[in-house]
Amino acid sequence: MPTIKSSAELRNNYNEISTLCHEYAEPIFITKNGKGDLAVMSIETYEEMSSRFELYGLLKDGMDDIESGRTRPFSDALSDIRKRRG
Fold first, then answer.
1. Cα–Cα distance for residue pair 81/74, rounded to 1 Å
2. What is the pLDDT confidence band of residue 60, given thresholds at 50, 70 and 90?
3. What whole-number distance in Å separates Cα of residue 86 and Cα of residue 34?
4. DSSP label at 13?
5. Separation CA 41–CA 29 (nearest Å)
6. Percent of the chain clearing pLDDT 70 (strictly above)
């Protein structure tokens, strides 16, 4: 279940919310006038999420290559890698 705090709580209890962000690897949702306004998270959680999105993008690129026929035999790719390694 998501953690929801008001903007007043963020302003008045920053350290408590910061601690929550570091203890739980998920965003805390901040409301303003009763409506969703922000999502805050620790830098570590942000970096992990960004890395995951980057990986998903690379996997999608690979799947698109397969779908479009931009592939080559594994043995050829492995041979090229071995040549580069010397």
1. 11
2. very high
3. 63
4. -
5. 9
6. 100
Long-range contacts of 1-10 (CB under 8 A, 24+ apart): 2/26, 2/27, 2/28, 2/29, 3/28, 3/29, 4/28, 4/29, 4/30, 4/31, 5/29, 5/30, 5/31, 6/30, 6/31, 6/32, 7/31, 7/32, 7/37, 7/38, 10/40
In whole angstroms, give the CA distance from residue 59 to residue 69. 15
- SS3 at position 15: helix
Place of tokens 């601690």: 19
Report the alpha-carbon distance of residue 54 to residue 49 in Å, rounded.
9
Report the distance separating Cα 75 and Cα 63, nearest Å.
19
